[in-house]
Amino acid sequence: MQPRTGGRPATPRLILATRNAGKVSELRAILEAADLDVELVGADAYPDIPDVKETGVTFAENALLKAHALARATGHPAVADDSGLCVDVLGGAPGIFSARWAGTHGDDRANLSLLLAQLADISDEHRAAHFACAAALALPDGTQRVVEGKLEGTLRHAPSGTGGFGYDPILQPLGDTRTCAELTPNEKNAISHRGQAFRALAPVVRELLG
Ligand code: ITT
């Protein structure tokens, strides 16, 4: 049962476990498009809560770890996502290590250069890769759900485009001639792993919070 204010159900608060404002806007737009009345806030609204160590070995495990930690700490439902690039010829690596592939967390330029160097001798036909995303919703009582999204493509030999972040300049989605870094934000959200996972989350939010 929702708490009531002035006879109307209070708008439930949903925390997104990220300090990335772009992710918060993306999920907010998707929840609004699904006509869901929730107050979405990023982890920045809770600066005293420490970041969670990503000790899982799958995207889903890491997303669940982050979502549960935030739900427990805030007493509100929480969403977390974990994503990365999986390269077929590398057996799925960098995978969960995507953000720190070259050693320093979030050094996009070094990560991309290292990956390109590792794949230098690999021909086009063996350069299949995909972005993967798991998005988890956890409630303070321990209830949990996970959904996933995937964007398949091939890896270029050199970066192209200035949009996006991370490995966007080298992933060319199947069926397109541009890299993700050459797509507009709307074009990327429409096909991206995270866009798919967040859209799959909307009915789950409705089921558990609506
Ligand atoms: P949080 O603060 O929300 O955890 P993050 O950037 O550390 O964001 P992500 O799980 O979203 O963590 O992504 C991990 C890495 O995977 C990221 O640093 C990129 O290298 C890569 N990656 C994920 N999504 C990507 C995308 O849409 N385009 C390019 N690279 C992506």
From TrEMBL:
Superkingdom as given in the UniProt entry: Bacteria
Annotated catalysed reactions: XTP + H2O = XMP + diphosphate + H(+); ITP + H2O = IMP + diphosphate + H(+); dITP + H2O = dIMP + diphosphate + H(+)
Pfam families linked to this entry: Ham1p_like
Listed Gene3D superfamilies: 3.90.950.10
Cofactor note: Binds 1 Mg(2+) ion per subunit.
Listed GO biological process terms: nucleotide metabolic process; purine nucleoside triphosphate catabolic process
Binding site for substrate: 18-23, 83, 165-168, 188, 193-194
Needed cofactors: Mg(2+)
Binding residue positions for Mg(2+): 82
Function (record text): Pyrophosphatase that catalyzes the hydrolysis of nucleoside triphosphates to their monophosphate derivatives, with a high preference for the non-canonical purine nucleotides XTP (xanthosine triphosphate), dITP (deoxyinosine triphosphate) and ITP. Seems to function as a house-cleaning enzyme that removes non-canonical purine nucleotides from the nucleotide pool, thus preventing their incorporation into DNA/RNA and avoiding chromosomal lesions.
Protein known as: dITP/XTP pyrophosphatase
Organism from which the protein derives: Streptomyces inhibens
